Amino acid sequence: MHGLWSLLRAKAARPSPSSASTRTHRMSMPSPATVVIVTKNRKALLMNAIRSAVEQTVVPEIIVIDDGSTDGTPEAVAANFPDVRLVVPERSRGYIVRRNEGIALASSEVIFSIDDDVVFGGPDTIATTLQEFDDERIWAVAIPYVNVNASADIHQDGRGFEGTMIAPFFIGTAHALRRRVFLELGGYDESLVHQGEGGDICIRALEKGYLVRLGRATPIRHFESPIRNNERIARLNARNAVGFCFKNVPMPEALVNAVLTSAKLVQYQRARDLPLRPVLSGIKEGWQSAWARRRRYQPVRRRTFWIFRALKASCRPLAWYEDA
Questions:
Q1: Most Cβ neighbours (<10 Å): which of 7, 30, 184, 221?
Q2: Considering the entire predicted model, what is its pTM?
Q3: Is the model's pLDDT at 59 over the cut of 60?
């Protein structure tokens, strides 16, 4: 892992044209924020995402990593947004790997890592969120968001609360984080491939005393793209949910949580009349991977797990954490 980050930092200093086609975003003054977007075959949606970033009152550095598009996405970015730093690797490796690379390449301390099918809720989203890093213990902000095509419900919403509200983790489509802490933690676990990276890195951050807070910005709008492999996502979500237990949770709670998680995953599919096969396959993979990596089992402390579980049940004021 350390070798990976050394390599990525070297790439940030000396981009290699042989490994990727790169267009550099030049700014007269360094920006306090970098927006990182990983994309694949969502050209029209991506244009909207970039445009909403460009229109922010705090002008961010923008990095777009194209993970193997065949719909002309790189050409569209280059033509419409010449100041965006465009990275086109030679082969597809998935969004978790590419997010790690994008964050390593960033020049700002605060990273806004968003999906290519979202738009910022207003022009002051970045400005508002930057102000919320007002405590060194806050390493990430879970920005409010709404799944426009599903419902009007607002998630990760810290508005309406007095003081700082602490959350267990953030959702990948709507968050900002401190780059320094992200690199200190080793970045996202690339073996996850897809799904579950937020909870995994956030419980490891909590183990070191770093916290996630609920944001107060105008909600990000998530237009969930129909271009997605739902069965693959369901399989990886199940695998990684079971794997989380055996990677991060202390015994005997790890075993209990893995059993309960497996049962809940099956129950969820049945209740919505969704295919069981991908979930059962993912559960099996999760248990198998747990056995394979049993000698590398390094769970968090029981106190950390207790706090994480309590926050999952309900977000709490910062004062609660200080007294826990």
A1: 221
A2: 0.88
A3: yes
Q: How far apart are CA 81 and CA 54, in angstroms?
A: 9
Residues of the chain with CATH 3.90.550.10: 2-222
- CA neighbours within 13 Å on the CB side: how many for 239? 20
Q: Which of 87, 83, 76 is nearest to 48 (CA)?
A: 76
**Position with higher pLDDT, 89 vs 3:** 89
Identify the burial level of 215 via C-beta atoms within 10 angstroms of its C-beta, where 0-12 means exposed, 13-18 middle and 19 or more buried.
buried
Convert the pLDDT of each residue in 291-318 to its tens digit: 888 888 999 999 999 999 999 999 999 9
Give the closest residue to 232 by CA, choosing from 266, 271, 272, 281.
281
Q: Give bridge partners of residue 53 from the DSSP assignment.
A: none
Closest to 321 (Cα-Cα) out of 87, 165, 162, 104: 165
